[in-house]
Amino acid sequence: MCGVTTAPVGLAALDKQLHPRFLTLSERERIHDLRASGHSLRAIGRALGRSASTIMRELDANSGSEDYRPYAAHRAAAARRLRPKDRKLLRQGRLRRFVQDGLRRRWSPEQICHALLKEHPDDQSMRVSVETIYQALYFQARGGLKREVQAAVRTGRTRRKPRRDPDRRTPRFTDPMLMISDRPADIEDRAVPGHWEGDLIIGASSRSAIATLVERTTRYTMLVHLPGGAHDAETVRDGLVRTVQTLPAHLRGSLTWDQGSEMARHKQFSTATGMPVYFCDPASPWQRGTNENTNGLLRQYFPKGTDLSIHSPEDLEHVAQELNGRPRKTLDWDTPAERLRDLLTT
Q1: Can you give the residue ranges of the Integrase catalytic domain (predicted)?
Q2: Can you tell me the distance from the alpha carbon of 80 to that of 74, in angstroms, rounded to the nearest whole number?
């Protein structure tokens, strides 16, 4: 069964940690004391957070001809308990290969879990929980997936440096800006495809950059190669125009960006593409949340503090294809590529 998780341990796994599957010694002691005090099975179950049937099975299995003795019951239960089976991902086979392939493609454990359901709907042998994959990543050093952990575990979202008081800022650009507050409602609620969010990923010492574009409805990502990593306004304008012009007209709706100096030529971009540019408020990265999240994922491929100018257009295309091939929770586990394909074929 696939659990839903946004962290290395999901809610279901946390609940199991707080409420173990098997009765503990302290629980057996409480059963003894409450039973001796005349409490009913239901009352004992409520006190322990267990079902009455669990208490009944415990008493039937461990009382015998004598009164219930918690320490003897605990030893007997441990002796009867089946030894654990080998963990699924320690065994060679299709399931392990599928998980390893997903990790190499930088899919999260939850994405792998749902991809298994989608690609093998009738094969119960191709099932693994999110928690099992995390256990394999973090704890199975011998014969498990420890080697893949560095590539599979994602870094946290980057924090932006504090900026000056917005009220004391001077106008950023000569050409008037369209602010995000002017953006139509159909863009805001993602009802109409073709509206994009953009930003730069900056390399070491701010000497190189890659421009990123993410479509708000499908989460489809395009990476813009900037020759030599230059990210002045003219280079960024030319790179964005060149990339956007590869799109069909109905997918050229608008672009939302922050107030970085690289967009000083936004008016010329709009003239060349027919796409208005809406600017976020200062120090408000959540107003481009889709792009911010995508840039966090891209840091798996382009780590902070590295030279981004070494990546060719072909390299960027390969990374974009990998990212667009990931199943997304927000898309009901479709991929951005599948959603874009549907838009292009309908």
Answers
A1: 189-344
A2: 10
Give the DSSP per-residue string, 303-323: -TTS-GGG--HHHHHHHHHHH
Q: How far apart are CA 205 and CA 106, in angstroms?
A: 27
- The residue type found at 168 is R
Q: Which burial class, exposed, middle or buried, applies to 316 when counting CB atoms under 10 A from its CB (0-12, 13-18, 19+)?
A: buried
Q: How many CA atoms lie within 13 A of 263 on its CB side?
A: 23
Q: Confidence class of residue 160 from pLDDT cuts 50, 70 and 90?
A: very low
d(CA 255, CA 178): 11
Each residue of 78-104: pLDDT tens digit?
777 765 556 677 778 899 899 889 888
What are the start-end ranges of the H helices in the chain?
11-18, 25-36, 41-48, 52-62, 70-80, 94-104, 109-119, 130-139, 149-152, 185-188, 233-244, 266-273, 289-298, 313-324, 336-345
- pTM of the entire predicted model: 0.60
Task: Return d(Cα 10, Cα 8) in angstroms, integer.
Answer: 7
Tell me how far apart the alpha carbons of residues 129 and 107 are, in angstroms, rounded to a whole number. 14
Mind listing the pLDDT tens digit for each residue in 241-250? 999 999 999 9
Task: Report yes or no: 273 and 252 within 8 Å, Cβ to Cβ.
Answer: yes
Please list the residues that pair with 212 across neighbouring strands.
Answer: 199, 223
Residue 202, amino acid:
I
The Cα 213–Cα 16 span in angstroms is: 41
Pairwise CA distance, residues 265 & 49, whole Å: 64
Smallest CA-to-CA distance from 117 within 326, 337, 333 is with 333
